[in-house]
Design goal:
By secondary structure, this protein is α+β, with helices and mostly antiparallel strands. The protein is built from 2 helices and 5 strands. It has helices spanning 9-55, 125-166; strands spanning 59-72, 78-87, 93-99, 107-113, 116-121. Strand 4 (107-113) and strand 5 form a beta hairpin. The radius of gyration is 29 Å and the shape is elongated.
Length: 172
């Protein structure tokens, strides 16, 4: 402080710069929270959709693995895939492929929707439900955490603004 209790010009600039940095940080944090909120809602939606789909896989049949291969992505990560042939309850043959580990010629249990055998899976309905529920739970946790973070940020912003109103920046 200068003579007479007045703030020096560099002190006023520092306080305004700090306020500007805080506002910019708040805007960036809010944008990040909106992104995470969207991701969380997407996980919940996908999880519920997959839960519904997994619950509808009520019919099953024995299938045969007709092909096994590995796919490589741009990071050279490998994914094992299988192609399975099975006959549905109505006697029609079907072939599908998905992620899995089995050798060509292996017999494998296939689960499919009644009336829609083209939508089949070699994974059990229980494992499909577990993965879907886990995704929905992670999405819900993200939404709750982000809403908590936004509430906390709003509370802090209100507290800072109240303090600023009570003690405004010095004016020349």
């Amino acid at each position: 402080m200068g003579a007479g209790g007045r703030a020096m010009p560099w002190q006023r600039i520092g306080a305004r710069a700090l306020l500007a940095v805080q506002v910019l940080f708040g805007i960036a944090l809010a944008a990040f929270c909106v992104l995470l909120l969207g991701l969380g809602v997407g996980l919940i939606t996908a999880g519920v959709d997959h839960l519904t789909n997994a619950s509808s896989l009520r019919s099953s049949a024995d299938g045969t693995v007709v092909a096994h291969w590995q796919e490589h992505d741009s990071r050279d990560a490998r994914t094992e895939r299988i192609q399975v042939r099975f006959t549905s309850a109505d006697g029609s043959p079907h072939v599908f492929s998905e992620v899995g580990r089995a050798k060509t010629g292996d017999r494998i249990r296939v689960h499919y929707k009644d009336g829609d055998p083209a939508n089949a899976s070699v994974h059990s309905a229980t494992s499909n439900r577990f993965v879907a529920a886990l995704g929905a739970f992670v999405g819900l946790a993200m939404v709750v955490a982000v809403l908590g973070l936004l509430a906390r940020g709003g509370w802090e912003l209100t507290r800072v603004l109240r303090r600023r109103v009570r003690r405004p920046l010095p004016v020349d």
